[in-house]
Amino acid sequence: MAEPGLDPTSMAAWRAFLEAHRRTTARLARELQADEDLPLTWFDVLVQLSEAPSGSLRMQELADRVLLSQSGLTRLVDRMEAEGLVERRRCAEDGRGTLAVLTGTGLARLRRAWPTHAAGVRAAFADLLTEQEAEVLARALGRVAEASTASSDAPYDPERAA
C-alpha cells in the first residue's frame, strides 16, 4: 500500500529503521538478561544516570530519556531501588522534585554488564557498517532525533501528518 506523502525509498528506509531497531534491541535484551540477569530497561536507566552530572536525574527527565511514562518509570525505579541499584532523593533545588540517584551497587552492576552490551552492539550493529556508513547514519539519525525533539512540544496536527 502506498503511503500518502512518502516515496518508496523513504518508506523502505522507515521500515528498515523500525525492523532493525526491533530486532537489535530484542537481541541485546536477550543477551543482557541471559548473561547478566539484567533487563535492558534497567541497563538503560543505569547508563542514563551514570552519564548525568552527579549520577542523578529528575524522575521526569529520566522518564523522557528512557522513553517511559512517569508511572512506568516509577514502577521500574521501585524495583531497581529494592535491588539497591538506585535510590530516590528529594531535589535540593526546589524540594518538590524527586531525583533518581545511581548507587555504588548500580554503578558496579553497570560496569559488570557493559562488556556484554558492548559486544552485542558490535556484533548486531557496528561490525555490519563501514566507517563511512556509520558516519552517515550517525549524522542522519542525529538530525532526525534533533528535529523530533524540537517539535515534541508542538501539538499534534493531523493535517500536517498526512
Please, could you describe this protein's structure?
- Helix 1 packs across helix 5 (104-124).
- The chain is mainly alpha-helical and 162 residues long.
- The model is unreliable at 154-162 (pLDDT under 50).
- It is built from seven helices and three strands; from the N terminus they run ααβααββααα.
- The protein has a three-stranded antiparallel sheet.
Chain-wise SSE layout:
Elements: H1 8-36, H2 40-51, E1 56-58, H3 59-66, H4 70-82, E2 86-90, E3 98-102, H5 104-124, H6 131-151, H7 158-161
Antiparallel strand pairs: 1-3, 2-3
Helix pairs in contact: 1-5, 2-5, 3-4
Q: What's the β-strand tally?
A: 3
Task: Estimate the global geometry from the Cα principal axes.
Answer: globular
Order of helices and strands: HHEHHEEHHH
Query: What is the straight-line distance between the termini?
Result: 15 Å
Q: How would you sum up the major sheet?
A: 3 strands, antiparallel
By DSSP (H or I, 4+ residues per run), the number of helices equals: 7
Proportion of β residues?
5-15%
The strand order across the widest sheet is 1-3-2
Subunit organisation of the chains: single chain
Structural class: mainly alpha
Sequence stretches where pLDDT stays below 50 over 5 or more residues = 154-162
Radius of gyration over all CA atoms, rounded: 19 Å
Mean pLDDT rating: 89
Helix content: 55-70%
